[in-house]
Amino acid sequence: MNPAKMLLAAAASMLAACATPPSLAPGTTLDQARAKLGNPTSSYSLTGGGTRLQYSNQPFVQSVWNADFDAQGRLARVEQMMSDAAFSKVQSGKDTQNDVLRDFGRPADTFFYKLRNESAWMYRYFTYGGFKAAMFIYFDPAGVVKRTETGLDPWAIQNGGRND
Predict the structure, then answer these.
(1) Cα→Cα distances 20→23, 47, 91, 119, Å
(2) pLDDT for position 1
(3) Omega prior to 154 cis, within 30 of 0
(4) pLDDT in tens, 32-49
């Protein structure tokens, strides 16, 4: 690729990186959204024929945006999923790993607890007051949510919390 094309591609990439789902106007089409925001990290079919474009910045940035489009391909809503309000909607005993992926995207980290025979997905986010937190969603062996827990973001703690 010649230097001029490389510079143009880099500039286009930087401009696309500045656009975020909240900048989309109501009624924006799927094609317009993709043109403005670039390819999503994930895309899901929604009940009723709609489509979700998911733009995740996990694991390094505490944001996951869902842009939901109706069956006609028009923007219906945009929601930031890394929030206490969004996590409070996770239903133990009902939601599955697929439900969690559709709503929150890929986790920042995953864990397996052999003695408890469960796994956990960790999402990094800011809780009330800008506190760096992590939401842990625990699953049984069948992939059904067992429980959720909020805790400190382990990635934000350096040296085990020591200042030496």
Answers:
(1) 6, 24, 28, 32
(2) 52
(3) no
(4) 999 999 999 999 999 999
Per residue, the 3-state secondary structure of 99-164, as one string, reads HHHHHHCCCCEEEEECCCCEEEEEEEEEEHHHEEEEEEEEECCCCEEEEEEEEECHHHCCHHHCCC
Domains observed in the chain: 24-80 (3.30.1450.10), 84-161 (3.30.1450.10)
pTM, whole model, 2 decimals? Answer: 0.82
Closest-CA residue to 45 (of 83, 26, 73, 18)? 73
- Residue in 86, 76, 73 with CA at minimum distance from that of residue 21: 76
